[in-house]
Amino acid sequence: MERESVLASYGIPIIPSSPMRPTNGRRLTAATDSSSRTSKRYSVTALYSMAAEQDVEVEDELAKAQKRLRELKSRISAQSKKNFVLERDVRYLDSRIALLIANRIALDEKQEVESHLVDELEAQEGSFPDDRKMQQYGNLFFLLQTEPRHIANLCRLVSLTEIDTLLQTVMFTLYGNQYESREEHLLLTMFQSVLSAQFETTLDFGSLLRANTPVSRMMTTYTRRGPGQSYLKSVLSERINSLIEHKDLNLEINPLKVYEQMIKQIEEDTGGLPPDLPRSVTPDVAAANEDVQEIIAPRLKMLMEIANSFLTTIIESLEEIPYGIRWICKQIRSLTKRRYPDATEFAMCSLIGGFFFLRFLNPAIVTPQAYMLIDGIPGKHPRRTLTLIAKMLQNLANKPSYAKEEYMRMLNPFVETNKQRISRFLNELCEVGDFYESLEMDQYMALSKKDLVLHITLNEIYNTHALLLQHQDALATSERSHLRMLLDEVGPAPPQVPRKENRTIELPLFSRWEMPIQDLATALMSDNSVTQFDILYMETKSIFVQLIRSIPRMAERRPIELQYIAETAATTKDATLVRKGIKVKEMLRELEEAQIIDRSDGYRLMTEEVAQELTHLGNLREKVYEEIKSLEAVYKTICDHNNYLRSQLESYKAYLQNVRLQTNTETGVGPGSSVVITNGKGPAQPKIKVLGPYKFTHAHLEKEGIIVETNIPENRRQNIYFNITSPIPGTFIIALHFKGREAAILEMDLKLDDLLEKQQDNVVSLDLEYVQLDVSKILQLLNKTFAKRRA
């Protein structure tokens, strides 16, 4: 197999190999070796090291931490995919349930919605494709993964209604290992192709990357992957939480709204309005009012201070911004320069800022609860402040010549003060290296793996297959195209299977046109002019590093004595270490005979390289611990978001169950109505079991965040408890009790669909006179307490 043909098939640029260690038998000098190893290009030495690490039999703290980190990254990737699917379902059900609540639509509509509520966890049925089909799909998806241009073209061809399903497969399955360099770099290569085509086909520079297109949807989805979420959590969470603590801080600057709030306050304070203050005025009149101006002036100053603190935090986080997001910014700048050579620095920064702020940062600032950056939903005033901050950052990035809202002009001093600062930041954002050389090695390594697999659902396979067939004439114009040949071979796409049968399978990936590499050392020697002594030197160094990591006392011993380490390993009670010790002593002898190392100087060259590797591993251990700590917080956030999404689905299920039970009664009661149970004579009605009362203390509900505000004096709260009863499906009675008193202090009758309607309308809290309850969390409590007992 020719190396050039392998790389060309992946669309990777061919870069001549750097010269390796001299092979004429003379001993290397440190200077000669140093120059060959400090090449900017990855060397074959690094490639061999990658291969050697696959089979390391070390169980030190670093190895354990690395294993834990890999498992954590894998869980984040899998959980991110589940959340993406759930979010899509919730978006659909939000609209359908809203109609059910608003219009009390009949059972046929209810059944359509109910069909979307099959829990993924129930999907255990379904059948695998046969062995022949599995191999054909393995060939097809290997080609799609390793030649990203096909997916890039497909993403541009599909409609907006099809893009979400395709993005699920691309972002979370095909390139779903979000922390693995090969898949991440292949995904970015796909983005480069997509962006390049977008720049070529967009006629109006002003609309570039701004419209709601499949490409913009792709870019937004990319930012929702694990690394992007990790960055948002670490950089924005503390800043936003400190802001929303000030629930009563009103920084509204829209003169019309300020005027209305002022009028309302005057009426509450005096019971009326003076004749010179009409209740309704135009925006211009409100803006000209001196009292309004006096209210707004300090707010403007405070808003600019807060926005400046956000901006400083973001700028100082440059090194924390995920590589992929910075690389996309770099492509936007590069493509702008090539496609629009006359574009100004301002125009380029505007495009970069449009992606970084509009698609990535601002959505998290405006709706931090959706990104699980905060607990609950921010109050009315903080929510408005966050929206204004996001607008200010967007205006700073875009530097528009006009403001969509006239009152935003008052914040122009913020833009003027920071415009040089933001331009410098957006340019520095693009200063990252390319990855093509490391991708070349990763692809080479992929051919040496025997377990390259995708975890993919049947419907993801069949949907991608169907889209490829639908657009194959545009994707594969030549009959001899590899993609066309594989599509012809696999045949027509099977229909989508029911959700319960949509099983996840393990699809082995194979190349039809490249032979797998069976022996990496032999392949390196044949394809890269690497000699057997090069391989021997690299393997010897690798074994010494493994031995020092495996024998704790060796790690502390200085100076490093290779002969002593080999002898110590060969005389331990561990059979594996004995084997390695004996082997590495023989390897030292061979290298000395070949005059590549010299015993007389204590094998100085290899000793220095082993020491450097150990220093690197020590630093790496600390970095791994830091990354684990950061990603554990991200994983918790993603799981919390998953629980929130599932609680929404549970609310919908409970509502539908309520509809079904009420509709099935013989009284003709329709959805949303109450069932009246009487003891008098009349039509027989089905007996409905009364559930409860279930008791909850004030302290418990406060701890769970269900009580968000309370007027009950602190010294009396320990005597307060709540009884919750469900006399009929979908109806709940919450009774507030004081210990020692038989009668309830207060009772409230709640309907499930009323609560859902409040949630739909973004009503944050429910007023029970003495306490305020969080709408979303009381819904979760009711579902958890009653839904399964009704089933």
Automatic annotation (TrEMBL):
The keyword Coiled coil applies. Keywords: Coiled coil. GO terms for biological process: negative regulation of Ras protein signal transduction. Residues 55-82 form a coiled coil. SUPFAM superfamilies: GTPase activation domain, GAP (SSF48350), RGC domain-like (SSF143885). It comes from the Eukaryota. SMART domains: RasGAP. GO terms for cellular component: cell cortex. InterPro entries: RasGAP_C, RasGAP_CS, RasGAP_dom, Rho_GTPase_activation_prot. Residues 17-36 are annotated as: Disordered. One of its GO terms (molecular function) is GTPase activator activity. This is 2476_t:CDS:1. It comes from Ambispora leptoticha.
